[in-house]
Amino acid sequence: MVLADLFGIREQEREDFYRLVEQYDQFFGGSSQYRNEDGVEVNHSASRIRDYFVGLMGERRAQPREDFLSVLLKHQRSSASRTRRSSRRR
């Protein structure tokens, strides 16, 4: 719940998000027997989580909201802009 709120994950997407994160967490948290099937499943979950966040970051760049991810992306852009200006001066 805390991560979903922090990143502004929509209510209708939270159940799937929780399930993916739980699968990932169980594997790396030691609740798995580390069978090949477990590795395949956690790999799939990690890919889906990554794809979800890539999409979410694109949405937040286009339409920022009042969430941590939007703030993080805003600061990332301003930091990158300062870095480019600084390197041009050298």
Structure in words:
Helix 2 (11-28) runs antiparallel to helix 3. The chain has one domain. The model has no long low-confidence stretch (mean pLDDT 83). By secondary structure, it is mainly α. It contains 4 helices and no strands.
Question: What does the secondary structure layout of this molecule look like, with pairings?
Answer:
Layout: H1 2-7, H2 11-28, H3 36-62, H4 68-89
Helix pairs in contact: 2-3
Can you describe this structure in just a few lines?
The protein is mainly alpha-helical.
Key traits:
elongated, mainly alpha, 90 residues
Give the oligomer, counting copies of the same chain as homo and different chains as hetero.
single chain
Q: What is the averaged pLDDT score?
A: 83
| Poorly predicted residue ranges | none
Distance between the termini: 46 Å
Question: Biggest sheet, in brief?
Answer: none
